[in-house]
Amino acid sequence: MINCMGCRADGVKTPFCASMCGIRKCALEKGLETCGNCPDLAQCLTVKMVIDNSDDARANLEHLV
Fold it and tell me: Using an 8 Å Cβ cutoff, are 27 and 35 in contact?
């Protein structure tokens, strides 16, 4: 279990971030710094559970676009 503060948070990323986090892997595969920059964010099934359950996460991602 990790305490994820988001892809843009300062500090060292763990091996989990690039190799196991589906959200981070998707963004990297699309050449994006974070999924907040993805044009498909509103319809994204990869991040859906996170943004559906956290108004703060949704607001943070939408603010970054």
Answer: yes
